[in-house]
Amino acid sequence: MDSERNCGCVAALENxxxxxxxxxxxMETPHILIAGEGANEFAKSRGFxxxxxxxxxxxxxxxxVKERLKKRDLPDWAKKWEDYEPVDTVGVAAxxxxxxxxxxxxxxxxTFMLNGRIGDTPVIGAGLYxxxxxxxxxxxxxxxxVRIVLSKWVYDRIAEGLHPQDACDxxxxxxxxxxxxxxxxxxxxxxGVSCNTxxxxxxxxx
Length: 206
Ligand code: GLY
Prior knowledge:
By secondary structure, the protein is α+β, with helices and mostly antiparallel strands. The chain has a domain at 87-195: Glutamine Phosphoribosylpyrophosphate, subunit 1, domain 1 (4-Layer Sandwich), CATH 3.60.20.30. Helices cover 28% and strands 23% of the residues. The strands form 4 sheets. It has a 4-stranded antiparallel beta sheet. Strands 1-2 form a two-stranded parallel sheet. A hairpin with a 2-residue loop joins strand 7 (128-131) and strand 8. The model has no long low-confidence stretch (mean pLDDT 92). Bound molecules: glycine. Residues 89, 107, 109-110, 119-121, 139-142 line the site of glycine.
């Protein structure tokens, strides 16, 4: 998503090396979000080659989940997030030399999740938001982030004049302390990063 509110998202996409590049292609269509088989076909039609993204670490995590399923050791949905194992999300919020903003993100989702589950990452306003005053990218337990519409909430605080750091910090009040949540944001005033769990972040000017 960018300052002009141009959006492009894909969800439940398979066997593509760079899903963000496919999302960028969606931005060139009249649509905002394409999912599942349609997204796979769209990627193919735009020349994206078949790529198996499964790493050794992901394979091990998958084996672990399969073992649990065999034993009927199922997650307790009532506990919402305690049984979640995030499968890594990357996010970017950027401003260029002309003061234009853009944001993007990408994720493998979480385990356990039902087939077809889509979290916050490709949901405009939840996992990401950008407009004329700044850009925001968030991650954590997708369902909880969607409920709050977290990235838009942080953006709105920035648009009201809050520094991105204060906007990010104050957004953590929506989440239980142990619930892994991370958020980055940028505006003309600078950037902000907040998390209540161990997440890596990196900022660069220039
Ligand atoms: N934040 C990643 C997800 O819940 O899918």
